[in-house]
Amino acid sequence: xVQKHSVHTLVFRxxxxxxxxxxxxxxxxxxxxxxSHKVKMAVKLRTEYGSVLHMPxxxxxxREKGGPNxxxxxxxxxxxxxxxxxxxxxxxxxxxxxxxxxxxxxxxxKVQRMPxxxxxxxxxVALPASQSRLDANRTAAGVGDIYRHxxxxxxxxxxxxSMPMVEAGGNKNSALMAKKAPTMPKPQxxxxxxxxxxxxxHLGWVRCIAVEPGNQWFVTGSADRTxxxxxxxxxxxxxxxxxHISTVRGVIVSARSPYLFSCGEDKQVKCWDLEYNKVIRHYxxxxxxxxxxxxxxxxxVLVTCSRDSTARIWDIRTKASVHTLSxxxxxxxxxxxxxxxxxxxxxxxxxxxxxxxxxAGKTRVTLTNHKKSVRAVVLHPRHYTFASGSPDNIKQxxxxxxxxxxxxxxHNAIINTLAVNSDGVLVSGADNGTMHLWDWxxxxxxxxxxxxxxxxxxxxxSGIFACVFDQSESRLLTxxxxxxxxxYKEDDTATEETxxxxxxxxxxxxxxx
Length: 513
Fold this sequence. Notes:
This is Pleiotropic regulator 1. WD repeats lie at residues 199-240, 241-282, 283-324, 325-366, 408-448. InterPro entries: Prp46/PLRG1-like (IPR045241), WD40/YVTN_repeat-like_dom_sf (IPR015943), WD40_PAC1 (IPR020472), WD40_repeat_CS (IPR019775), WD40_repeat_dom_sf (IPR036322), WD40_rpt (IPR001680). By secondary structure, the chain is mostly beta strands. 11% of the residues lie in helices and 32% in strands. A four-stranded antiparallel beta sheet has the order 1-28-27-26, with no helix packed on it. Strands 2-3-4-5 form a four-stranded antiparallel beta sheet, with no helix packed on it. Strands 6-7-8-9 form a four-stranded antiparallel beta sheet, with no helix packed on it.
């Protein structure tokens, strides 16, 4: 009678039998098949090095016996790198060819034209340096390299290994050489910013802020439904404007006309005439709360963005809706305008950023790199670049196609606002009341601020909703959840010795998330 075993036992018995059968050959390499190895090497040479196999032959110290094919069973040219000395190029002539049509190419009939002395010299000058010299001159990538290579997709490739790439003029090992990982260049030193004034007067969260082009006053909008105008030098209240019936979410002052524009959660977009301090125009069309607005710098056009997932372009004078920019699938939190293409940039709670064609009213580019809501976008005043803020990362991008530059990681909070000045100081303000200051060029975080809330407020009321530099860029104003406006300035007493940059040349990590 056959004894019955469990499947478990039978499997292990089978494994043991297999192991005993092959134990003598365990871990031994498979014998090399000469013919298949030849084919493999020939294919590898042609596919990976085909672009350089036609190059001029190198002068070499050939081995004691035999010609160039010594030690190579496959009949290929050998390019051995002579260590410690520069390799010279031997300029060869054309391939042999018959003297006329229909003549067979034989040793007696072949013609081969050799280059003249001057042609050989000019070709030798034009050839690139040898690999040893290229390696000696290779240094870590600088900022210029980061900007030049912007647009390469963000990659999670291991640092230290480069893609196989043969440089003309190099030896065959150049494809296998590990390149140095790019290091962060030393950031520019910026003086720290310090709080020097707290302005109170609003009865609700201060949601938005804007400085007028003459730098004499600034305007704020609040959850108390009022718009207040303040003197920039003294911080005194000059004027209060009422008219919105819900939180005021956006304000901006025109540089082309004496108008102030505001928008709010009451779906209204208003144009105020500052000579009479009255509303002179309404722009009707949004179906839900209007979260932000911006003015085009060169034409009389107003752009607004809303919780209804659209942005709208308005003719200021006629109040007509020129375009409705649809495509986002969730609330559009921020909108920015510029004179160059793309003229409109939007960031949305659907995690995407869109660059728009103003004339056609259509999307040019959609950037999907962020994993969470994009609540803030800022354009650099001098460079053709911009940054976007999200809880996962602050990302820098290059116009016009939205090529990725770098991540600014470390501000782990809901980023409500971004501001940047010409000096390259980027400010990010968050929902938890923290403010980080960054060097735009290198992405180095040189200061972190968490200002105390106004006396009588709860610590949970710490939050920054908006921030802006004044026109001189020497003052930074923040609109906060403790119902105040805080004004910061650079610390004039600070020097690079008293506040050194605690910077280490870390490996740059470009992550997809």
